[in-house]
Each structure stands twice: as C-alpha cells, then as structure tokens.
C-alpha cells in the first residue's frame, strides 16, 4: 500500500487570517494582528484510505480542510492533487478539479436546501458541473448515488423533502450529493457529530464502505474513538501544527506526544468498570493570535522543561514508535 | 437505605399540537434519587428525557399538560401547581442546560447574575451576596476576579461553569444537568465532568445527568435509566446495564458507540427510527427496531425486576423469570 503514490499531498501548508482591527485601532496605528490558523502542516492521503484529522476547536483542522477544498487561500505551501499543485490555480482551472474533491459538512439540517426534494438535491451537482448527459442518464446516476449510501429502494426517498427524513438519512443524502460527481477525495467535516448516537454508526459504516471501494477520505473529527475505529491513519493537531501522526492503531495504542496521551486519557469508555484516571489538561487551547514560543504545547504540557520554551520541535519518528509513526516532542528520544 | 430526596411517579406529559392533536411525550416515568446519588437519564433525541427534567423543575411551556407525582422528601409538589413548585425550584432542585450561552443573560456580567439570583431567593444581599458569588465562582473553578466578565468574554467551558455556579446559588440538593458537555471539546468536557464529580463528592449533591452519551454516564454515574419513546425501558446499576442488559435497546445503544477499549468490535447502528408519539403505540414501542422481537412483543411490556435494583420492560425477561 505504501508503494502506491499519494493522491493528495499537503506540504508545509500555512494559512493565516488577519484580525479585524476596528476603527480606533486603525487610526491609532496599532499593529495588524494575525490568526495563525495553520502553520506548516504536511499530510498525505492515498486512494482507499481514511485519514482522521483530530483536535480541539480552533486547532486548525477545519481550516486545513478548507484549504484542500480551496475555499481559503494558503499563505504558502503546496497541495498536490493527483500530481498537480492546487495552490497557484485560479477558479477557472480549479473547476474541473473541484468535481474530484467533494465535501460533506457537519449539519445536514443546514447543508440541504429545505425546498429541494432528495432527487433535486442529488441531481444539482451534475447540473452545475454540466455532467450526467440526458435527463434519464442523470436520473440513473442519482439512483446509483442513493444506493451507494444505502438509501434504497430509491423510490422511497426521491420525492421526499429533507424535513421528512431523519438526521441519519439527511446526512446520507448529503453524502450521495457529493458522490454523484464520482469524486476521488471526500472531505468529511465532523460528519456524525450532529446525529443521534443510534444512527451514527450507520453513516460511519457507509463512509467505511466507500473507502473500501477506493475513495480517499479526509475526516475532520474531535472524536478519537471514531477516528480510532474507522480511520487507517490519525493526525493530531494542536494550535495549527500536527503534533503526532501515524497508523490509527499505533497512535491509539502507543501514543507518543503528551498531548495525544492526555486526549486519549479523557475519552470516556462505555464499560463502567473501565474507569481510568483522566489526565486533564488545565486551561484551554491558547489563542492562535498569540502563539507560545518554542513548543506550542509547553504552557499546558505536564512534562515541559526549560528547552521546550525555546525550541520548536519537528515531527520525527521516536525510538519507541513503529514505522510511519511520528511525533513532535523534544523529550522523545529520536531514533538513532 | 436512606430516604430518597426526589421521587417521580407515573409522570405523564402531553403537548398540544397545532393541528389539534396531542403528543404523549412522557408516558408513566418513575425515578427515585437518594442524597448524593448520581443517576444517568439516557436516550435518543425525542425520547422525553429533557421533558422529564423540565417537568420535575416545573418549567414546561404552557402547551404542556402534566399528570403524576413529583415528590421532594416524600411530599408531592406537582399537584399544587406553580405555587407548590416555586419554593422548591432552584432551592431543592436546580438545572443546568446544554448551551450555557442561552442560560446566561448576555447583557449582564456573570457576577451580577449570580448576585441577582441570591437576592431574588433572599439568600444574601449587597456585600454578602457579592462575597457568596465569589465563593460560588471559586467552587466551580472560575477565578473570582472574572465575576465582572460578560458571558461572551468567556470560553464555552467557563460559561458552563458560570451556569453551574448560578444553579448552585441556593444550595440545592439535586442538580439536573441536561447535556452539560454536548457542545464542548473533549478536554473541556473532561474538566466539566470532573467538576460535577467533585461537587457530588464534596457537597453531597445528587445528580441527574441527562444525555445521549452512554460512555459519559458510564464514567460518572452509579445508576442509569434508559428512556425510549417516552418511557423508561430499563433502569439499574450501570455495571449491570453494560454487562447484563435487560433490554435489547440498552445493549444496542452501547454497541452503537465506538469504544477505544474495543476497537475490533463492530459498531452497529440501530435500524429505523423511534415511533411517533402523537398516536397510540401498539405493543412494545421498540419492537420494529429490535433484533430479538418475538410473538409476545405485540403486547406492551411492563417494567419488571430482573435483578437487585434492576428493572427492564422487555418480554424476553418473562421467559427467564418464568
């Protein structure tokens, strides 16, 4: 599998947002401030693979996804898709590529137009991209997309409005509307966090089936249990950086970075006998405007030493980790 | 066994619908809570768990009608209406809601709001009220100096702490927490759960944790009541619910959430959707989604003992017990 070239390769991605200064600040010439949303993120995604980008609110995971979709403009870095860098491309050149990278958002109550029937919701992307040929051919593709998300027989759903569907069914319709364009990459931004627990697994199993059939999925989530169960690889983000990355089972069973260890320790387990002492980090993720010096995690790190306030660690494979598993921590002995 | 503080018996709630119909949201719920006990109230959206919590607080909207008993220290406070409820609300039983932003007034500082609630309930006035506010804020982990902050100046976790401080202002013995961590990040969720845990331990507060998140209940509560379609289908000690569930719905709910300790186990969703509550339900309400339904399920099962302090409403237990 590692011999297969990456379909999507992000290198040294940097995304910053200017902070609105307000009139007084502008007149008094206070310095313009910047949100350092993503600072040097590198990731790769292969066909048939799900990569989970995990972290707390404000860590930059959604901004990374938006950069991949080219909904925000990176300051620097490259996003190579199928061998071509998307960053320098203009909207005209991007258009044919957009079909191949689709997205599913968190809230299917917001993302589906309430006035459109399921048939129209799923057909619309074909019309926008001028694909699908005749009306009959488009209808066939809509049915096929619904079948791939396990909404069958299609007749039961085609003429319904979103409000007539359950949350799980709506999210499946949103996935079908992305699939109808036959994309190579699907970005799923918290695809089940708005859904009831009883139906989450159904949507996740649909995504898993699509992944097995060759789709590459970049899943943004704050839920480590879901990432661990469904993704092949996990990348943990903190304040705009990836602090740990590797095969999902490795990251979960043999976490290296103190932040990953803390995150894993606070995930509630469903067996009441399996109560653990959670390692709760104090405070909250600092503001991405005022990035701490050295290792960004040092103000909250239980292990931080003097040099952690000065040196900025790079991702490297620690001696105690398996192949393809990297972490950015100065205190981990590197592999000699 | 100590006497329960809070008892709910045969609670029913109906909502009038715009089309003239009626929605039977809570259908005969019974609960009992002893001092210092932690009870999880679990179920899918629309199962009636929040409506049950609001009925206990006497905070239902005017379109609702209620029947049954809500007893504090053995005395019913539901029959006497608002006049009977008022002396107990916030004083004996308090509630914290999911989105703390909605529970707090956006144009008053958090300190002012807590002082106001102390004064409203004649707990303290002036300087004494401000001193008590500082104490309450410290108790929930907010530096007293932040009393002068407005809700929007605080993070989600801090707002939830402020809402908890306000709920605690009249020293209630029971705290109902309705999805207190749902909108929060995992680390902040852990901080809030740790706070609830320490409030129960240090002040003997009894807790009703209303949530759809079974693992959160498994980590924090002693007992659990599982609601489905307006009724409690199983209740008992958490360990029994997980290791020896008496109702297929409880078992299937546990199996529906991925777990870090069981990564190789399949994660299975529950097919279908809960029944509509604006029409009578025939037989067991879970029957259409159940993986173990059989002939007897066309009759509605009653909650029956299946172990010590453990009851379930499922006909599968008839066979075992017979």
Task: Write a structural description.
- The complex is a heterodimer of chains A (336) and B (322).
- Chain A contains twelve helices and eleven strands.
- With 336 residues, chain A is α/β, with parallel strands linked by helices.
- In chain A, the strands form two sheets. A seven-stranded mixed beta sheet of chain A has the order 6-7-8-3-9-10-11, sandwiched between helices. In chain A, strands 2-1-4-5 form a four-stranded antiparallel beta sheet, covered by helices on one side.
- In chain A, strand 9 and strand 10 form a beta hairpin.
- In chain A, helix 5 packs across helix 6 and helix 8 runs parallel beside helix 9.
- Chain A is globular and about 70 Å long.
- The mean pLDDT of chain A is 92.
- Chain B is of the alpha/beta class and 322 residues long.
- In chain B, 31% of the residues lie in helices and 23% in strands.
- Chain B contains eleven helices and twelve strands.
- In chain B, the strands form two sheets. In chain B, strands 6-7-8-3-9-10-12-11 form an eight-stranded mixed beta sheet, sandwiched between helices. A four-stranded antiparallel beta sheet of chain B has the order 2-1-4-5, covered by helices on one side.
- In chain B, strand 4 and strand 5 form a beta hairpin.
- Chain B is globular and about 70 Å long.
- The two termini of chain B are 29 Å apart.
- In chain B, 48% of the residues are buried.
- The model of chain B has no long low-confidence stretch (mean pLDDT 93).
- At the A-B interface, helix 9, helix 10 and helix 12 of A face helix 7, helix 8, helix 9 and helix 10 of B.
């Amino acid at each position: 599998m590692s011999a297969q070239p990456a379909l999507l390769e992000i290198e040294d991605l940097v995304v910053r947002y200017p902070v609105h200064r307000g009139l007084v600040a502008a007149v008094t010439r206070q310095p313009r401030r910047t949100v350092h949303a993503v600072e040097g993120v590198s990731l790769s995604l292969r066909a048939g693979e799900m990569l989970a980008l995990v972290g707390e609110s404000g860590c930059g995971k959604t901004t990374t996804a938006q950069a991949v979709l080219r909904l925000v403009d990176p300051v620097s870095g490259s996003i190579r898709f199928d061998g071509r860098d998307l960053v320098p491309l203009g909207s005209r050149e991007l258009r044919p590529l957009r079909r191949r990278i689709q997205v599913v958002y968190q809230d299917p109550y917001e993302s589906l137009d309430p006035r459109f029937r399921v048939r129209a919701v799923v057909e619309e992307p074909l019309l926008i991209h001028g694909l699908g040929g005749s009306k009959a051919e488009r209808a066939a593709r809509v049915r096929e997309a619904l079948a791939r998300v396990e909404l069958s027989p299609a007749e039961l759903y085609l003429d319904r409005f979103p409000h007539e569907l359950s949350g799980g069914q709506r999210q499946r319709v949103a996935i079908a509307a992305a699939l109808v364009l036959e994309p190579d990459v699907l970005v799923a931004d918290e695809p089940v966090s708005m859904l009831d627990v009883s139906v989450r697994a159904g949507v996740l199993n649909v995504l898993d089936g699509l992944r097995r059939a060759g789709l590459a999925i970049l899943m943004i989530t704050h839920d480590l249990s879901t990432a661990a169960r469904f993704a092949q690889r996990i990348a943990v983000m903190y304040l705009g950086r990836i602090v740990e990355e590797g095969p999902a089972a490795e990251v979960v069973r043999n976490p290296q970075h103190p932040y990953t260890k803390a995150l894993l320790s606070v995930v509630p387990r469903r067996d009441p006998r399996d109560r653990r002492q959670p390692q709760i980090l104090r405070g909250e993720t600092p503001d991405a405007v005022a990035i701490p010096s050295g290792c960004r995690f040092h103000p909250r790190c239980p292990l931080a030493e003097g040099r952690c306030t000065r040196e900025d660690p790079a991702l490297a494979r620690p001696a105690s980790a398996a192949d393809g598993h990297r972490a950015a921590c100065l205190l981990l002995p590197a592999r000699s | 066994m100590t006497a329960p503080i809070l008892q709910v018996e045969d609670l029913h709630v109906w909502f009038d619908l715009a089309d003239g119909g009626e929605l039977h949201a809570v259908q005969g719920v019974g609960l009992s809570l002893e001092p210092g006990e932690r009870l999880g109230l679990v179920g899918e959206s629309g199962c009636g768990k929040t409506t049950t919590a609001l009925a206990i607080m006497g905070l239902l909207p005017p379109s609702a009608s209620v029947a049954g008993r809500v007893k504090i220290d053995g005395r019913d406070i539901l029959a006497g209406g608002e006049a009977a409820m008022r002396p107990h609300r916030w004083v004996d039983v308090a509630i914290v809601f999911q989105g703390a932003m909605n529970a707090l007034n956006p144009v008053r500082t958090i300190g002012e709001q807590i002082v106001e609630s102390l004064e409203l309930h004649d707990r303290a006035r002036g300087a004494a009220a401000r001193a008590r506010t500082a104490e309450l804020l410290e108790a929930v982990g907010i530096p007293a100096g932040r009393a002068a902050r407005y809700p929007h100046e605080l993070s989600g976790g801090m707002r939830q702490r402020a809402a908890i401080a306000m709920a605690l202002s009249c020293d209630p013995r029971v705290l109902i927490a309705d999805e207190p961590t749902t909108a929060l990040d995992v680390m902040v969720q852990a901080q809030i759960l740790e706070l609830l845990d320490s409030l129960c331990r240090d002040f003997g507060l009894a807790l009703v944790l209303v949530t759809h998140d079974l693992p959160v209940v498994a980590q924090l509560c002693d007992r659990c009541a599982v609601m489905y379609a307006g009724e409690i289908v199983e209740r008992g000690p958490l360990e029994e619910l997980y290791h020896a569930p008496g109702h297929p719905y409880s078992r299937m709910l546990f199996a529906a959430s991925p777990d870090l300790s069981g990564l190789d186990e399949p994660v299975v969703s529950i097919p279908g959707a809960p029944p509509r509550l604006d029409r009578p339900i025939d037989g067991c309400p879970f029957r259409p989604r159940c993986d173990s339904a059989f002939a007897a399920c066309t009759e509605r099962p009653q909650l029956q003992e299946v172990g010590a302090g453990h009851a379930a409403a499922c006909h599968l237990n008839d066979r075992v017990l017979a």
